[in-house]
Input
Amino acid sequence: MIKKGLLLILLVGFVAVISGLLINFTGSNELNPLASYYAEKGPTEVGAANLVTAVVITYRGFDTLGEVTILFIAAAIVGFFLKTMNADTNRPLRLRKTSEILETASTLLVPTIFMLGAYIFVNGHLTPGGGFQGGAVIATGVMMIILARPASQFNHKLISVLESISGIGFVVMGVLGLVLASGFLNNAFLPLGKLGSLLSAGAIPIIYVFIGIKVGSELTSILDSLKENQNEI
Amino acid sequence: MAQYLTLEFIAMLTGFILIIIGLWGMITQKNLIKLVIGFSLFDTGLNIVIVSMAYVKNSTAPIIDKAVDVSQAASKIADPVPQALVLTSIVIGLGVTALMLAYVLRMYREKKSLDINSYTDLRW
Output
């Protein structure tokens, strides 16, 4: 009873705190100075039609590098935790048979999903997409493979090689920006091209392809570690 | 009342409701998986709140195309900075959720139980 009372007090207090924020909230009518700087200078300085991409990859690219690192560390820890669990048991996998519909549909859908993912991260500087979204879409294709063919094994070597190459590629592009242009992760060392065309915005499409491959392979390795532990339970 | 029937206000209200549901779930639920879902809801709610703060009245997505000309971009688009931050936040939320689920899997293997009351090792 006391517990419930305390919970109620806590929740009501929290609601009271945020309702003050909510009631006094009125949407802004114009951009703040920082955002209008990005809006005015972004298209000419960076050349990306999608201004969010310009902010994510160029103006605050260092953030994104840290973000990719965090995702890598999370994937590594998940793999580490679930690996040590696996070491002492050698039971064969008990698998439930998957339905024929899922198996047949996956052969058609998985390549399409991979292609959609690649489309999303290649067009990251033009449309509301990007490396993280495309990588996540690719991971859903991997999820479908796992569901349709639970006995299939992924090539761990290939996944880690892809992940390492794309991670190194991202940093190399950043350093190239430092050497050839004005700063770390500056995309302007390649020609900016015409605003809104596929080959524009300098190094952004290349960086986004690296990020897409990296995120896709990291999420694949997380899914794979979780899959290999389904028999433990 | 009419001032509360705007897009940004409704989005923010939805975000805060999700945050409260997530907090409630984190405090009351005994099942470890449901705890993780509570964290995830809290995270999603926060993201919606941040994006709703980025909205500028009668503006559109911060993408230069036929609808938004380069010369008048600053007066037509929503704030791109919070959206970029939310992109970061979503990815980190995903990483945190995956880690929590791995811990849950590991804990389940130790005691064969998802009930948080059966993990008393750190209780005082």
Remarks:
- The radius of gyration of chain A is 23 Å.
